[in-house]
Amino acid sequence: MTRKIQDQRSEGGKLSGFSSEGKPGSHRPMQEDQSKSKVAEVAHAIGGQAGITTDLNDREHLIEELKHRTAALEVANKELRRVSHYRTLFLGRMSHELRTPLTSILGFTEILLDHEQLSDTQRRFCQKIQDSGLQLQASLDQLVDLSHIEAGRTELFLQEFSLREAVRDSCAAVARLADRHEVRIDCELAPEPTTIVSDMGRLRQILYSFLAWGVSRSSAGQSVNLRTWLARPGSLNISLDDAGARIEDLARAFDPEERTGSGELPNLDELGVIIGRRLVDMLGGTVTLENLETAGARVTIELPISGEGA
Known about the structure:
Layout: H1 2-8, H2 28-115, H3 120-150, E1 159-162, H4 163-173, H5 175-181, E2 184-188, E3 195-198, H6 200-217, E4 223-232, E5 235-241, H7 256-261, H8 268-282, E6 286-291, E7 297-304
Parallel strand pairs: 2-4
Antiparallel strand pairs: 1-3, 4-5, 5-7, 6-7
Helix pairs in contact: 2-3, 3-8, 4-6, 6-8
């Protein structure tokens, strides 16, 4: 009797611990689901920690690689500076060793041409010696200048001087080359500015380089035209027009690296305008190059100045 009462007090007459079908373990599926959920949470947590550890390892590896590459780059830069220093020393020494005998050759050649009674053949030979010596001297000057510019050792000496005299001296310096090519040089100078403040030596070198380049591009009977004007207060413009062939690639004209990369080495006059372009940059100016509609090219130089009329 007691057993029946206890059975009836159970849930719906069912014995606790048994399923509705009378099978044991009615709560086991729920426990298994909970266990699986906990295992998944633990696995996710472990996986996240593993991912963080992997990210940290990758970051440390990248930092170490960056340190190694930075150190290698510093060694390479140090080696480049050393090579550049030795090159500058070599060019300076070579220039000194060659200038001494070259000065003697040019001096004696000038004496022969001015004071000796020479036949036409002898005079032609002496002029050939003089022209070759002057060309070698110009090449040495340009190599040393380019080396100093690349090494950042070029200095500027600002002073007040006559613009007309500087242009006249530059035209006179290139007159021998123009006569040899039978090219005429025409100069048109604006009345102002009369004097400017800049580096007179560098300005002469710039004008000579671009004038010589224009002469070398022109044919016999043609002319190179130089013109100056005051674009605005404190800014001087200089244009040089030649009658040479059209320049196909204007961007490469003043870039020695582009020309060397294409297998085309610049000649003496082209090297001169490359140096001239660098000198204009040092003076804070700009250089533009364009083809003229009919024939030839125009170089326009803009330089900051100060002085009377500026």
